[in-house]
Amino acid sequence: MSFLKKLFGARPSAPLQAVSVAAYAEGYATHVRLALPGTQVEVEHGATPGLTRVHWTFPDGGKVSTFLGNAYARYLQQPEAMNALFAEHLADARRTQEADDSTELSRILPVLKTTEWVSASQAQLASSNAPADQFPVLGKLAGSLVLAYVEDTPEAMRYITPSRQKRIDTDFAALNDTALENLKAFLPQLRVEGGGGRYAARLDHNYDASMVLVFEHWRDRLSVPGDPVFAIAARDELLICGSEDHESVAALRDMAREIAAKSAYGLTSELFVWRDGRLQVLADAG
Protein backbone atom coordinates (compact mmCIF):
# COMPACT_ATOMS: atom_id res chain seq x y z
CA MET A 1 0.00 0.00 0.00
CA SER A 2 2.73 2.47 0.98
CA PHE A 3 4.72 1.55 -2.16
CA LEU A 4 1.74 2.27 -4.40
CA LYS A 5 1.18 5.60 -2.68
CA LYS A 6 4.82 6.51 -3.21
CA LEU A 7 4.75 5.38 -6.84
CA PHE A 8 1.42 6.80 -7.93
CA GLY A 9 1.18 9.79 -5.62
CA ALA A 10 -1.65 10.61 -3.23
CA ARG A 11 -4.14 13.36 -4.04
CA PRO A 12 -4.05 16.34 -1.66
CA SER A 13 -6.86 16.64 0.86
CA ALA A 14 -9.32 19.49 0.62
CA PRO A 15 -8.26 22.56 2.63
CA LEU A 16 -9.91 22.72 6.03
CA GLN A 17 -11.36 26.18 5.35
CA ALA A 18 -13.30 25.03 2.28
CA VAL A 19 -17.08 25.39 2.42
CA SER A 20 -19.46 22.52 1.68
CA VAL A 21 -20.72 21.89 -1.83
CA ALA A 22 -24.18 23.06 -0.70
CA ALA A 23 -22.75 26.39 0.47
CA TYR A 24 -20.69 26.67 -2.71
CA ALA A 25 -23.79 26.11 -4.85
CA GLU A 26 -25.79 28.73 -2.95
CA GLY A 27 -22.88 31.16 -3.26
CA TYR A 28 -22.72 30.61 -7.00
CA ALA A 29 -26.48 31.10 -7.30
CA THR A 30 -26.21 34.39 -5.42
CA HIS A 31 -23.39 35.47 -7.75
CA VAL A 32 -25.57 34.77 -10.80
CA ARG A 33 -28.52 36.69 -9.35
CA LEU A 34 -26.35 39.74 -8.64
CA ALA A 35 -24.58 39.60 -12.00
CA LEU A 36 -27.76 39.06 -14.03
CA PRO A 37 -30.72 40.88 -12.48
CA GLY A 38 -34.02 39.41 -13.58
CA THR A 39 -32.59 35.93 -14.01
CA GLN A 40 -34.35 33.17 -12.06
CA VAL A 41 -31.88 30.89 -10.28
CA GLU A 42 -32.55 27.63 -8.44
CA VAL A 43 -30.13 25.23 -6.74
CA GLU A 44 -30.73 21.49 -7.05
CA HIS A 45 -28.78 19.87 -4.22
CA GLY A 46 -27.52 16.38 -5.08
CA ALA A 47 -26.13 13.54 -3.01
CA THR A 48 -22.65 14.31 -4.36
CA PRO A 49 -20.93 17.38 -5.86
CA GLY A 50 -21.30 15.79 -9.29
CA LEU A 51 -25.08 15.63 -8.88
CA THR A 52 -25.44 19.19 -7.59
CA ARG A 53 -26.44 21.74 -10.17
CA VAL A 54 -27.71 25.27 -10.62
CA HIS A 55 -30.62 26.04 -12.98
CA TRP A 56 -31.16 29.54 -14.28
CA THR A 57 -33.68 31.06 -16.65
CA PHE A 58 -32.92 34.28 -18.54
CA PRO A 59 -35.56 37.00 -18.94
CA ASP A 60 -35.82 36.01 -22.63
CA GLY A 61 -36.69 32.42 -21.66
CA GLY A 62 -33.28 30.88 -22.35
CA LYS A 63 -32.22 28.24 -19.84
CA VAL A 64 -28.91 26.90 -18.52
CA SER A 65 -28.25 24.02 -16.11
CA THR A 66 -24.74 23.86 -14.65
CA PHE A 67 -23.42 20.76 -12.86
CA LEU A 68 -20.99 21.78 -10.12
CA GLY A 69 -18.85 18.64 -9.70
CA ASN A 70 -15.88 19.91 -11.69
CA ALA A 71 -16.30 23.47 -10.45
CA TYR A 72 -16.34 22.40 -6.81
CA ALA A 73 -13.30 20.17 -7.30
CA ARG A 74 -11.39 23.16 -8.69
CA TYR A 75 -12.57 25.28 -5.77
CA LEU A 76 -11.21 22.75 -3.27
CA GLN A 77 -7.76 23.27 -4.79
CA GLN A 78 -7.96 27.07 -4.41
CA PRO A 79 -10.70 28.07 -1.95
CA GLU A 80 -9.33 31.59 -1.71
CA ALA A 81 -10.34 32.15 -5.36
CA MET A 82 -14.04 31.36 -4.95
CA ASN A 83 -15.36 34.65 -6.36
CA ALA A 84 -13.01 34.49 -9.34
CA LEU A 85 -14.17 30.93 -10.02
CA PHE A 86 -17.81 32.04 -9.80
CA ALA A 87 -17.15 34.67 -12.47
CA GLU A 88 -15.37 32.12 -14.67
CA HIS A 89 -18.18 29.56 -14.34
CA LEU A 90 -20.76 32.22 -15.15
CA ALA A 91 -18.89 33.29 -18.28
CA ASP A 92 -18.58 29.68 -19.44
CA ALA A 93 -22.28 29.01 -18.85
CA ARG A 94 -23.29 32.12 -20.78
CA ARG A 95 -21.12 31.10 -23.73
CA THR A 96 -22.71 27.65 -23.65
CA GLN A 97 -26.21 29.18 -23.71
CA GLU A 98 -25.28 31.45 -26.59
CA ALA A 99 -23.52 28.74 -28.59
CA ASP A 100 -25.05 27.15 -31.65
CA ASP A 101 -26.98 23.98 -30.85
CA SER A 102 -25.06 21.93 -33.41
CA THR A 103 -22.76 19.11 -32.33
CA GLU A 104 -19.24 18.74 -33.67
CA LEU A 105 -18.51 15.02 -34.10
CA SER A 106 -14.76 15.49 -33.62
CA ARG A 107 -15.41 16.69 -30.05
CA ILE A 108 -17.43 13.65 -28.90
CA LEU A 109 -15.61 11.61 -26.24
CA PRO A 110 -16.49 8.76 -23.84
CA VAL A 111 -16.56 9.23 -20.08
CA LEU A 112 -16.90 6.55 -17.39
CA LYS A 113 -19.77 6.66 -14.92
CA THR A 114 -21.24 4.14 -12.47
CA THR A 115 -24.62 2.48 -12.07
CA GLU A 116 -24.93 4.35 -8.76
CA TRP A 117 -24.52 7.65 -10.62
CA VAL A 118 -27.13 6.54 -13.16
CA SER A 119 -29.69 5.70 -10.46
CA ALA A 120 -29.12 8.93 -8.57
CA SER A 121 -29.24 11.03 -11.74
CA GLN A 122 -32.43 9.36 -12.96
CA ALA A 123 -34.10 9.95 -9.60
CA GLN A 124 -33.02 13.57 -9.69
CA LEU A 125 -34.34 13.98 -13.23
CA ALA A 126 -37.68 12.46 -12.25
CA SER A 127 -38.01 14.70 -9.19
CA SER A 128 -37.51 17.80 -11.34
CA ASN A 129 -40.10 16.61 -13.92
CA ALA A 130 -37.52 17.01 -16.68
CA PRO A 131 -38.11 15.23 -20.01
CA ALA A 132 -36.54 11.78 -20.23
CA ASP A 133 -34.65 12.74 -23.38
CA GLN A 134 -32.48 15.06 -21.27
CA PHE A 135 -30.75 12.03 -19.74
CA PRO A 136 -27.41 11.02 -21.30
CA VAL A 137 -27.10 8.18 -23.79
CA LEU A 138 -25.48 5.28 -21.92
CA GLY A 139 -23.61 2.10 -22.79
CA LYS A 140 -22.68 -0.88 -20.61
CA LEU A 141 -18.99 -1.45 -19.89
CA ALA A 142 -18.20 -3.91 -17.06
CA GLY A 143 -19.32 -4.38 -13.47
CA SER A 144 -20.70 -1.12 -12.12
CA LEU A 145 -19.09 0.95 -14.88
CA VAL A 146 -21.14 2.45 -17.69
CA LEU A 147 -20.26 4.74 -20.58
CA ALA A 148 -21.66 8.19 -21.23
CA TYR A 149 -20.71 10.47 -24.09
CA VAL A 150 -19.93 14.17 -24.07
CA GLU A 151 -19.25 16.90 -26.55
CA ASP A 152 -16.13 18.54 -25.10
CA THR A 153 -16.05 22.19 -26.14
CA PRO A 154 -13.78 24.95 -24.80
CA GLU A 155 -16.74 26.26 -22.81
CA ALA A 156 -18.16 23.07 -21.29
CA MET A 157 -18.78 19.36 -21.54
CA ARG A 158 -22.30 18.64 -22.81
CA TYR A 159 -23.73 15.15 -22.49
CA ILE A 160 -24.99 13.49 -25.65
CA THR A 161 -28.69 12.93 -24.98
CA PRO A 162 -31.16 10.97 -27.13
CA SER A 163 -32.45 14.21 -28.64
CA ARG A 164 -28.93 15.39 -29.48
CA GLN A 165 -28.06 11.95 -30.89
CA LYS A 166 -31.12 12.19 -33.13
CA ARG A 167 -30.06 15.63 -34.37
CA ILE A 168 -26.63 14.37 -35.41
CA ASP A 169 -28.34 11.40 -37.10
CA THR A 170 -26.21 8.56 -35.75
CA ASP A 171 -26.95 5.23 -34.09
CA PHE A 172 -25.33 4.05 -30.87
CA ALA A 173 -22.65 1.92 -32.54
CA ALA A 174 -21.53 4.82 -34.72
CA LEU A 175 -21.60 7.19 -31.74
CA ASN A 176 -19.40 4.83 -29.73
CA ASP A 177 -16.99 4.32 -32.64
CA THR A 178 -16.68 8.08 -33.13
CA ALA A 179 -15.97 8.63 -29.43
CA LEU A 180 -13.27 5.94 -29.37
CA GLU A 181 -11.60 7.28 -32.51
CA ASN A 182 -11.51 10.75 -30.96
CA LEU A 183 -10.09 9.30 -27.74
CA LYS A 184 -7.19 7.75 -29.66
CA ALA A 185 -6.03 11.27 -30.49
CA PHE A 186 -4.88 11.51 -26.86
CA LEU A 187 -2.50 8.53 -27.14
CA PRO A 188 0.60 10.69 -27.79
CA GLN A 189 -0.12 12.66 -24.59
CA LEU A 190 -0.72 9.58 -22.42
CA ARG A 191 2.06 9.02 -19.86
CA VAL A 192 2.61 5.54 -18.40
CA GLU A 193 4.56 5.94 -15.16
CA GLY A 194 6.09 3.32 -12.89
CA GLY A 195 7.81 0.00 -13.45
CA GLY A 196 8.40 -3.40 -11.93
CA GLY A 197 4.87 -4.46 -12.75
CA ARG A 198 3.12 -1.45 -11.13
CA TYR A 199 2.00 1.45 -13.29
CA ALA A 200 -0.18 4.54 -13.47
CA ALA A 201 -1.56 5.96 -16.72
CA ARG A 202 -1.75 9.76 -16.64
CA LEU A 203 -3.44 12.14 -19.05
CA ASP A 204 -5.33 15.36 -18.28
CA HIS A 205 -7.46 14.59 -15.17
CA ASN A 206 -10.54 14.37 -17.40
CA TYR A 207 -10.05 11.29 -19.58
CA ASP A 208 -7.38 9.32 -17.68
CA ALA A 209 -9.80 6.51 -16.78
CA SER A 210 -11.37 6.59 -20.24
CA MET A 211 -8.04 5.58 -21.77
CA VAL A 212 -8.70 2.00 -20.64
CA LEU A 213 -11.18 1.85 -23.53
CA VAL A 214 -8.30 2.01 -26.03
CA PHE A 215 -5.87 -0.10 -23.98
CA GLU A 216 -4.94 -2.31 -26.93
CA HIS A 217 -3.27 0.73 -28.48
CA TRP A 218 -0.89 1.36 -25.54
CA ARG A 219 -0.48 -1.99 -23.80
CA ASP A 220 3.05 -2.34 -25.21
CA ARG A 221 4.14 0.54 -22.94
CA LEU A 222 4.03 -1.68 -19.85
CA SER A 223 4.99 -5.20 -18.80
CA VAL A 224 3.05 -7.11 -16.15
CA PRO A 225 2.96 -10.78 -15.10
CA GLY A 226 -0.27 -12.33 -16.33
CA ASP A 227 -3.23 -10.33 -17.59
CA PRO A 228 -3.35 -6.55 -16.98
CA VAL A 229 -5.41 -5.67 -13.88
CA PHE A 230 -6.86 -2.16 -13.53
CA ALA A 231 -8.07 -0.01 -10.68
CA ILE A 232 -10.46 2.54 -12.22
CA ALA A 233 -11.31 4.19 -8.94
CA ALA A 234 -11.71 7.76 -10.18
CA ARG A 235 -12.04 9.73 -13.39
CA ASP A 236 -8.43 10.87 -13.07
CA GLU A 237 -6.92 7.57 -11.86
CA LEU A 238 -5.94 4.50 -13.89
CA LEU A 239 -3.61 2.12 -12.04
CA ILE A 240 -2.31 -1.19 -13.42
CA CYS A 241 -0.55 -4.35 -12.26
CA GLY A 242 -0.51 -8.02 -13.34
CA SER A 243 -2.98 -10.75 -12.42
CA GLU A 244 -0.18 -13.14 -11.37
CA ASP A 245 1.38 -10.61 -8.97
CA HIS A 246 -0.92 -11.34 -6.04
CA GLU A 247 0.78 -8.89 -3.67
CA SER A 248 0.32 -6.02 -6.13
CA VAL A 249 -3.29 -7.02 -6.81
CA ALA A 250 -4.06 -6.92 -3.08
CA ALA A 251 -2.34 -3.55 -2.72
CA LEU A 252 -4.16 -2.23 -5.78
CA ARG A 253 -7.49 -3.31 -4.32
CA ASP A 254 -6.76 -1.37 -1.11
CA MET A 255 -5.76 1.68 -3.12
CA ALA A 256 -8.93 1.46 -5.24
CA ARG A 257 -11.12 1.44 -2.13
CA GLU A 258 -9.35 4.48 -0.72
CA ILE A 259 -9.44 6.52 -3.93
CA ALA A 260 -13.07 5.69 -4.73
CA ALA A 261 -14.11 6.77 -1.23
CA LYS A 262 -12.13 10.02 -1.09
CA SER A 263 -11.81 11.36 -4.62
CA ALA A 264 -14.05 14.16 -5.86
CA TYR A 265 -14.19 12.17 -9.10
CA GLY A 266 -14.67 8.76 -7.47
CA LEU A 267 -15.95 5.83 -9.52
CA THR A 268 -15.64 2.26 -8.19
CA SER A 269 -13.49 0.16 -5.88
CA GLU A 270 -13.83 -2.85 -8.19
CA LEU A 271 -10.78 -4.22 -9.98
CA PHE A 272 -10.93 -5.14 -13.65
CA VAL A 273 -8.87 -7.42 -15.87
CA TRP A 274 -8.17 -7.14 -19.59
CA ARG A 275 -8.84 -10.60 -20.96
CA ASP A 276 -10.04 -11.93 -24.32
CA GLY A 277 -9.76 -8.45 -25.78
CA ARG A 278 -12.16 -6.77 -23.38
CA LEU A 279 -12.49 -5.38 -19.86
CA GLN A 280 -14.00 -7.71 -17.24
CA VAL A 281 -14.54 -7.54 -13.49
CA LEU A 282 -11.61 -9.38 -11.93
CA ALA A 283 -13.76 -11.44 -9.58
CA ASP A 284 -15.88 -12.65 -12.51
CA ALA A 285 -12.96 -13.44 -14.76
CA GLY A 286 -11.87 -16.66 -13.14
Shape: globular
Task: Estimate percent helicity.
Answer: 25-40%
Which structural class is indicated by helix and strand composition?
alpha+beta
- The number of distinct structural domains comes to 3
Please write the string of helix (H) and strand (E) elements: HHEEEHHEHEEEHHEEEEHEE
Mean pLDDT across all amino acids: 85
In terms of DSSP E residues, the strand content is 15-25%
Extract low-pLDDT stretches.
none
End-to-end distance: 24 Å
Biggest sheet, open or closed, and with what strands and sense?
6 strands, antiparallel
Number of strands: 13
Number of helices: 8
* Strand order across the largest sheet: 8-9-11-10-12-13
Rg calc: 20 Å
Topology, element by element:
Elements: H1 2-8, H2 21-35, E1 40-44, E2 53-57, E3 63-67, H3 69-77, H4 82-98, E4 108-114, H5 115-127, E5 138-142, E6 145-152, E7 157-159, H6 162-167, H7 172-184, E8 191-195, E9 198-202, E10 228-234, E11 237-242, H8 246-262, E12 271-275, E13 278-281
Antiparallel strand pairs: 1-2, 2-3, 4-6, 5-6, 6-7, 8-9, 9-11, 10-11, 10-12, 12-13
Helix pairs in contact: 2-4
